[in-house]
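Final report, section 2: Outcomes. Of the targets proposed, Pentatricopeptide repeat-containing protein is the one most frequently requested by collaborating groups, and we therefore present its record in full.
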Amino acid sequence: MFLPKPRWKDLLLRTISTGEQHVLCSLYSTMPPVLPSSELQELCRVVSSGIGSLDDLEASVSNFSVPITASAITQVLDSCKNEAATRRLLRFFSWSRKDLGSELGDEVFNHAIRLFSEKKDFTAMDILISDLGKEGRVMETQTFGAVVQTLVKLGRVDEALGIFKNLGQFKCPQDGVTITAIVSALCSKGHAKRAEGVVWNHKGKISGREFCIYRSLLYGWSVQGNVKEARRTIKEMKSAGIMPDLFCFNTFLSCLCERNLKSNPSGLVPEALNVMMEMRTYGIAPTSISYNILLSCLGRTRRVKESLRILKTMRKSGCFADWVTYYLVARVLYLTGRFGKGKEIVHKMTEEGLVPEQKFYYDLIGVLCGVERVNYALELFELMKQTSIGGYGPVYDVLIPKFCRGGDFEKGKKLWDEATAKGVALHCSSDVLDPSITEVFKPKRKMEERVNLVDYAPPKTRAQIKKSCGKQKKIKKKKKKKNTAPT
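The predicted structure is given below as tokens.
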């Protein structure tokens, strides 16, 4: 149960790595297959099979009766990449290189490198990239972008920068495309300072790509949580005549809110609203994504009043809330025990005609079950069924055991019958419906504990409490002495 990744982050992480739109289709889609389908299936079976050693694999493909072409290699690699171990794929490709020799084109070689990059196999990538340079082959810019992205994700930043510095060995130019790719890869994991070094050393080669590079740098500082450097990047954009867009401001807003969440929660709302005011001065209206960034941080600090106030501010400013907005507000209300108000917020969402995704109901029902408000969860489930969005199985699997373990076997049985009548496949066992098997967990009253006022009193009053307690003890002792004195 989770929130989807905000769309403003997806914008950066798409194909900014190359700066150009590439048609990401398999190579074999443009090459007519030479192998018959039956022979191709048999070859895929041999490569995918985990039986036998790598030498056995090479022996099996060597004895193949039909000659293997470059087109067949790409088909086998793509067909087997999810089933076969990467070492078997690497051995098959190595054998293919020996078998075809110079007939194996650079396109197929690059395709194999991208495949192992996708599989995050550093050893295979390292072997093929080294051989690519030794054989004097050309590395495509798309391949370079995929390789550096994977290397940075694996924590091998130095290796990624090393390939960029030695692109000449791979007959790949250090131009705006490759510079944008390495900067994007570095910034995706917060290495903004090293990315700035690349930009500084190649300032003359990034003409026309400044906006894309600034966005990457801003995102890199945001990932690092450095508000000061993120603000500096925005100022540099303005001084260079490049106006920040909605993505830039949302990225900075996220960085600012995350910082305040850790060090200054009371500054969350005022500082975020100041950024939104700045956005409006540039003709950029904050969207629901902008407000959701703030609401997410407010929810994590359980700031209910501010969350409700922001929802009202959105309506006054003419910004339409989406289902994620209502989710964030309802969630913080449920977590703080304001169940009636949370229910009201959900109904407002449905009245406005918003149809949320299944994740909305999954998460909120999970929250209500977690705080032991199963009846509210059942009401929310009824609302989910009215929308006819489907996907009810996981909810039944949560609610049925919850009711039964709470002692309400009647409701559990009713939900079970309802699910089976609808043909919903349940993963919970039918044993939960049996009171003789299911252990009922009823809330127990806490034992009354004697509270020591001295431990909870302020420092100034502790001495007074001790003095009064001492006086009372003395009075009790005197009374005992009088009562026990001989008559």
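The first helix runs from residue 7 to 10.
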